[in-house]
Amino acid sequence: MSQDKAGYPGYLIETLLAQGPVTVVYSAIDLVSGLPKDLMVTPKEIREAIEDQVAKIVSAIKATLDETPPDLVADLSRTGIVLAGGGALLKGFSERLMKETGMPVRVADDPLYSVVHGAGRCVENIEMLKQILVAESR
């Protein structure tokens, strides 16, 4: 694999989704010597490295559900949680979230760009949004 491809941030997701043994070579600066160094990383090592952050995300989602009004939780129970962004592509994340929340979970059709598309729709419909968004009074 070329170092150009290994340095591409999105390649992390591709690596985690890979089937079978994959090793990626990343170039980094050794903090002790200050010299460039190649690091060989497997998907398992990457998953272990991000486990704490994934656990925090799951915990935050569960805490949010605990504070969500019952009628909205009922809607989520029927329609499910939709994951967007790069984290949605992490292998096994939707299944883990489904298991820990007890709710259906699915990945958005275009998870890497769905937030951008949604923001664009908000801008296109700004007049409608003005009607439903209320400034908080102090």
Detailed description of the structure:
The protein is α+β, with helices and mostly antiparallel strands and 138 residues long. The protein has two domains: 3-41, no CATH class; 51-112, ATPase, nucleotide binding domain (Nucleotidyltransferase, domain 5, 2-Layer Sandwich), CATH 3.30.420.40. 54% of the residues lie in helices and 13% in strands. The protein has seven helices and four strands; from the N terminus they run ααββααβαβαα. Strands 1-2 form a two-stranded antiparallel sheet. Strands 3-4 form a two-stranded parallel ribbon. α3 runs parallel beside α5 (93-101). The longest helix is centred in the middle third of the chain and has 25 residues, at 43-67. The protein starts with a helix and ends in a 6-residue tail after the last helix.
User: From the 3D coordinates, which CATH architecture of the largest domain would you assign?
Assistant: 2-Layer Sandwich
Number of strands: 4
Question: What characteristic shape results from the CA principal axes?
Answer: extended
| Sheet with most strands | 2 strands, antiparallel
DSSP helix count?
7
Order of helices and strands: HHEEHHEHEHH
Mean of pLDDT: 82
CATH class division of the largest domain? Alpha Beta
Give me the CATH fold name of the largest domain: Nucleotidyltransferase, domain 5
Low-confidence segments, ≥5 residues, pLDDT <50?
1-9
Could you outline the blueprint of secondary structure elements for this entry?
Elements (H helix, E strand, L loop, with lengths): L2 H5 L3 H7 L6 E6 L6 E6 L1 H25 L2 H10 L1 E3 L9 H9 L3 E3 L6 H11 L1 H7 L6
Parallel strand pairs: 3-4
Antiparallel strand pairs: 1-2
